[in-house]
Amino acid sequence: MRTPTLFLALLLAAAPAFADPFAKGDIKTGKTLHDKSCISCHVSMTGGDGSAIYSRLERKVKNPQQLQARIRNCNANVGANWFPEEENHVGAYLNNAYYHFK
Ligand code: HEC
Fold it and tell me: Are the C-beta atoms of 45 and 74 separated by less than 8 Å?
């Protein structure tokens, strides 16, 4: 039977892409970038350290694609001028700390 083998091979080849959406991101670098550019507004909105915006019940971001899009928009709005790799580091940090998308 060739088909199941092929299917399994495809599945394995595709698996890493789904396992962790920000696998290439560095969490520590992401935290540094995030803490520098991204906290001020969130603090004024939620108080505390601002992280409640990521864990509030009615949070907007529901999947990794939305998280990535949000980081990209905020990056542009704030003028942080991050490269895509840097957005990815911040994604890795936020996902690890708050969102836990798989
Ligand atoms: C100019 C103010 C401001 C700055 C600076 C800012 N944000 Fe935001 N951010 C907001 C606002 C306002 C919301 C809530 C929007 C909403 O509720 O729809 C938000 C929401 C978010 C969310 C979604 C939270 C949820 O609902 O799940 C993410 C993720 C986020 N910001 C990431 C960032 C990142 C990354 C940076 C740094 C590049 C950043 N923000 C900087 C104003 C800001």
Answer: no
User: Could you give the dihedral angle defined by the CA atoms of residues 74, 23, 62 and 34, in that order, rounded to the nearest 10 degrees?
Assistant: -30
Ligand 1 centre to CA of 70 (Å) is: 7
Q: How far apart are CA 90 and CA 82, in angstroms?
A: 10
Which pLDDT band, with edges at 50, 70 and 90, does 21 fall under?
confident
Task: Answer whether 33's CB lies under 8 Å from 78's CB.
Answer: no
Atom of ligand 1 at shortest range from CA of 77: 1
Measure 16 CA to ligand 1 centroid, in angstroms. 28
Distance, in Å, from the CA atom of 2 to the CA atom of 21, rounded to the nearest integer, reads 30
